[in-house]
Amino acid sequence: MTDIGYVRSDIVDARPAPNRTSGPVAWMRTNLFSTPFDTVLTVLGILFLLWVVPPLYGFFFGNAVGPNGTVEECRMINAGACWAYISSEMEFFIYGFYDIPEQWRPNIVFALGALLLTPLLIPRMPFKRTNIVLFLVIYPILSYFLLAGGVFGLKVIPTEKWGGLLVTLIISVIGITLSFPLGIILALGRQSQMPIIKTVCVGFIELIRAVPLITILFMASIMLPLFMPQGTTVDKFLRALVGVTLFTSAYMAEVVRGGLQAIPRGQYEAAESLGMGYWQRMWFIILPQALKHVIPGIVNSFIALFKDTSLVYIVGMKDLLEAVKTKNDSALEWQSANTATTGYLFAAMVFWVFCFGMSRYSIYMENRLNTGYKR
Amino acid sequence: MSQPSETTVERSINTSHMQISQTDVAIDVINMHKWYGDFHVLRDINLRVMSGERIVIAGPSGSGKSTLIRCVNRLEEHQEGQIIVNGTELTADLKRIDDVRREVGMVFQHFNLFPHLTILQNLTLAPIWVRGTPKAEAEATAMHYLERVKIPEQAHKFPGQLSGGQQQRVAIARSLCMQPKIMLFDEPTSALDPEMVKEVLEVMISLAEEGMTMICVTHEMGFARQVANRVIFMDQGQIIEQNEPEAFFSNPQHERTKLFLSQILH
């Protein structure tokens, strides 16, 4: 008869995991050549890179005409990208038809924006409340008068003359800062138990989401004046701004609603049982958690908005892309095989830098806010 | 059958300062009915809880125990009859509901701490914003109650970093920070590991010793026997039987009660 009783006499202490073989060879073995199939893929991948990278390098750098080059160099047979075209037309790409002697005004707006936005985005920086007031209240007013002029002896510059990156940035920054709160309010309204509020919000969201942005911009620029009394005009820049904001807020509302639905019922109940009112519950308990859940979706909407600003050409605004296109078509003195391509590449790179920045910042924010479940 | 099989907390309660004032009605439920759609969950509930009384509600699952105490702070709405808490009748009037909720603490089965806030913020949020207590004072009160539930060292952690028992003790402390007159417990130990049940029950017993008015929905019959003034047995949305714990456990009257007790006490 075997003895099935057992008592452990000594406790096994935890010890460190055995050392893995490390170094570049081990890394390649696990990541590149772990199976025959992986080896084939690795070889194919390397061949693909060898095929693609050298010509790309040649186009962008090797054969490219630098910022100080001439149009004659750009017209040579083997010439790559014509960066000289970009640098010579840079002013138009940034400011559009904004009067050249007055370009210090948008420059101040750019600088002030960067100066106020940077500390706002860095969590460690103090004076957040002052910073928010400055950025959301003082800065827009100041920027408007600086850009439009008409006060303090500043020359009036109508919005028709604004263009390029200036327009792209203004529409996206204003669109983002307005559509975010608007979207939250719409999402909360959609969950409201008050039938009128709920119906209005659902109707608005479903109407806007079911229509392409181009249609909304068309409506704003062509249909709206028909309904307005004779003689009243709404600035087309403002119309585009309102169109883009409303459009994004409808999408934002649905993203936020997704976050609201992820919050367990118990969170609402705990807040209620402490006697917190509706707005207190939303502000302190529900929204911080819900918004954290949907940061990727929110940033997705922001990025979409940023890129959709190029559709304002519909109402005759010259945003960055439209400014590039205008010059591509009209700058005869820069005509060459690669001029237009270089122009569009430049626009793409600018868009990419901003969108990639937003994306990275959102990942940083996600990690930072991931306190609730951190162990 | 008289031996409670649940976790028994070895502590006797000093009954001398636990005199119940017969004049102070804390909660009065009168002919109350509630439906979920067509389903009649609570039927003809009549329950008067005196100030300082400790009531344990027992019963099979689906009998309406939780629904009943959730009606007391209007997390659920009743359709007929009256519920009067601290002299305020619960109606659709939102202000009155918030007034009642301020005086009634609630502890949930799944703790429902706010995961994005630290323990200290969990405790001070409602006092600061609902009661208007200055921040420093609210934090002092919070630390006081954290010491009472024996986890002051966790004040700056997040709920996700605490064990279930610790989270539930924080949840109790959070309710206490609002200085409530009544505490409702909705199966506070049901989601806990067996080893953690005791630490939560100890906190609840010490609350009872201080004369807090309590209604506890629980399956901890040892706790009921030791602490309750009255045990209420519910089935099918009705109060089937109520009695002092000794009589309730040793001499149940209703057939359903006998069956229930025979199932849970071995």
UniProtKB/TrEMBL annotation, chain A:
Keyword hit for Transport: yes
GO molecular function: transmembrane transporter activity
Localization: Cell inner membrane; Cell membrane
CDD domains found in the cross-reference section: TM_PBP2 (cd06261)
InterPro entries according to UniProt: AA_ABC_transptr_permease_3TM, ArtM/GltK/GlnP/TcyL/YhdX-like, MetI-like, MetI-like_sf
Presence of keyword Transport: yes
Membrane disposition: Multi-pass membrane protein
TM segment ranges: 40-65, 77-98, 104-122, 134-157, 163-188, 200-228, 240-260, 281-306, 344-365
Any one GO BP annotation for this protein: amino acid transport
Domain ABC transmembrane type-1: 165-355
Keywords attached to this entry: Cell membrane, Membrane, Transmembrane, Transmembrane helix, Transport
Gene3D superfamilies attached to this UniProt entry: MetI-like
PANTHER family linked to this entry: INNER MEMBRANE AMINO-ACID ABC TRANSPORTER PERMEASE PROTEIN YHDY, MEMBRANE COMPONENT OF AMINO ACID ABC TRANSPORTER
Protein family: Belongs to the binding-protein-dependent transport system permease family. HisMQ subfamily.
Name of the protein in question: Amino acid ABC transporter permease
